[in-house]
Design goal:
There is one protein chain. With about 375 residues, this protein is mainly β. Helices cover about 10% and strands about 50% of the residues. The protein has three helices and 23 strands. The strands form five sheets. Strands 18-17-21-22-23-20-19 form a seven-stranded antiparallel sheet, covered by helices on one side. It has a five-stranded mixed sheet with strand order 1-8-7-3-4, with helices on one face. The chain has a five-stranded mixed sheet with strand order 10-16-15-12-13, covered by helices on one side. The chain starts with 9 loop residues before the first strand and ends in a 31-residue tail after the last strand.
C-alpha cells in the first residue's frame, strides 16, 4: 500500500485508491485537485486511525476521474494532436505534502509506459469509419509512429508504402487519425486498392507497440453504425456495429382534460435504435463492455458526431458454445431534435425549366 512519500509523481488514478498514513491521533487530510489551472476540488476532512494505527484513504480515483471529465470537451473527440486527460492531485496530511500528476483510468492499471491507449491491437475497419488512435506520451520522449500500408495496384502487382510521423510528447496523449482516407493521404497512396495497414509505435527506434488494421469489405458501409466514445484511458476510441439495426418509434405523452376534452399532453415521438455488434473477437468483446459504460458516447454519421445514450443492453454468454459472442444495445440520440432529422428542400421551380422543350408543334 502506497504512502504519501512513496507515490510517484506521475500516476494513473487507481494508484491513489489506498493511501496509508501513519498517525498517533486524528489526521486532517486536505485534498486539492486542479485542471487547466482551475481548482475543481479543495476540501479538508478529519480521519481517525484504525486498529493498525494508520489512516487508509480510499477511492480517490473516482474523485480524480470526475474532475478530469468536468473539463472534457465533446467537440474535441476527433481532433488530432496533443490532448490532456489528467489533473494535479495535491494531498496534505500531518505537515507532509505530496503533489502528483494523475491520469484518468477506470481499470486497475497502474504501470505507465509508452503505448497505444486501447485494448485492441487488431482492428477491422469499415470504409468511412473514424479511427482515432491515442498514444500515451506522459513522461516519455523520443517517440515516433511508423505508418505502413499495403496496396494492390490497378496495373498489377503489390506495393508497400511506409512513412514516419513525429509524435509530440508535450502533453498526456497524442492522437493520430488512422481512418482509411487519412492513411492513404499520409502514405501517398498509389492507384490501386488498400489491402491493410499497420501503425508501429517506436521508442528511440525500438518497437514499443503495434496496431494492425484489416479492411472490412464484407460489411456494407451504409448499414454500419459507428460509435466514438471515451475509453478506459479517457481518450476517444471508435467501434463499429456490423450487425442488424432496427429503428423503432414510440409515442411518449401524458393524458389529461382540457376544456372537457381528454387529450394528449406533451406528446413526444421518440426514436430508438436497436443495434447488434455482429460476431465479436474476444478482444472486441472487452472493448464493447467498456464502451457500454462510457461517460461520453457519440454516433458518427455523415461526418457529424451526435451524442447518444444507451437505454438497454442485451448480452448473455452460454458456455460451452461454438459461436462467437455478440451484443445488442438499444440507443437513442441524447438531443431529441436529432431524431428523424428533417430534410427541407425548397422548390425553386428549376424542375420546370427545360433546355429544349420536349414537345413538338402538334402538342396542344
Amino acid at each position: 500500500m502506497p504512502t504519501l512519500a512513496s507515490l510517484p509523481l506521475l500516476i494513473f488514478s487507481p494508484s491513489a485508491d489506498d493511501i496509508t498514513i501513519k498517525a498517533e491521533g486524528d489526521v486532517v487530510l486536505t485534498t486539492t485537485i486542479t485542471a487547466d489551472s482551475t481548482t475543481l476540488f479543495d476540501f479538508s476532512s478529519s480521519y481517525a486511525p484504525g486498529p493498525d494505527g494508520c489512516v487508509h484513504v480510499e477511492r480517490l480515483s473516482e474523485l480524480v476521474n470526475t474532475a478530469i471529465l468536468a473539463s472534457f470537451k465533446p467537440s474535441t473527440m476527433l481532433t488530432p494532436g496533443c490532448r490532456s486527460a489528467s489533473c494535479e492531485l495535491k494531498l496534505t496530511a500531518n505537515g507532509e505534502t505530496k503533489q502528483v500528476h494523475a491520469l484518468y483510468m477506470t481499470r486497475l492499471i497502474t504501470e505507465i509506459k509508452p503505448m497505444f491507449a486501447t485494448l485492441l491491437r487488431r482492428r477491422r475497419v469499415v470504409p468511412g469509419s473514424p479511427q482515432p488512435v491515442s498514444i500515451l506520451t506522459a513522461g516519455a520522449s523520443g517517440l515516433t509512429l511508423q505508418v505502413g500500408a499495403a496496396y494492390k495496384l490497378n496495373k498489377g502487382g503489390l506495393a508497400w508504402r511506409e512513412v514516419t510521423v513525429e509524435v509530440d510528447c508535450s502533453n498526456d496523449y497524442f492522437v493520430f487519425l488512422a481512418d482509411i482516407d487519412e492513411v492513404k493521404q499520409v502514405t501517398s497512396a498509389p492507384i490501386g486498392t488498400l489491402l491493410y495497414y499497420t501503425i508501429v509505435l517506436l521508442k528511440d527506434g525500438k518497437q514499443a507497440d503495434k496496431i494492425s488494421f484489416d479492411i472490412d469489405n464484407k460489411t456494407r458501409p451504409s448499414l454500419a453504425t459507428h460509435f466514438v466514445y471515451l475509453n478506459l484511458f479517457g481518450v476517444p476510441e471508435s467501434f463499429t456495429f456490423r450487425g442488424k439495426d432496427t429503428e423503432e418509434q414510440e409515442l411518449e405523452s401524458d393524458f389529461g382534460y382540457a376544456n372537457n376534452e381528454y387529450i394528449q399532453l406533451n406528446a413526444q415521438l421518440v426514436e430508438s435504435h436497436k443495434a447488434n455488434t455482429g460476431w465479436l473477437r474476444p478482444a472486441e468483446k472487452d472493448v464493447v463492455y467498456g464502451f457500454m459504460g462510457s461517460h461520453y458516447l457519440m454516433v458518427y454519421a455523415d461526418g457529424t458526431l451526435r451524442r447518444a445514450t444507451i437505454t438497454e443492453v442485451d448480452s448473455s454468454i452460454s458456455r460451452p458454445t461454438n459461436e462467437p459472442a455478440n451484443v445488442s444495445i438499444t440507443w437513442r440520440y441524447a438531443d431529441r431534435r436529432h431524431m428523424q432529422m428533417p430534410v427541407v428542400t425548397p422548390d425553386t421551380g428549376k424542375g420546370a425549366i427545360f433546355a429544349k422543350p420536349p414537345f413538338d408543334k402538334t402538342f396542344d
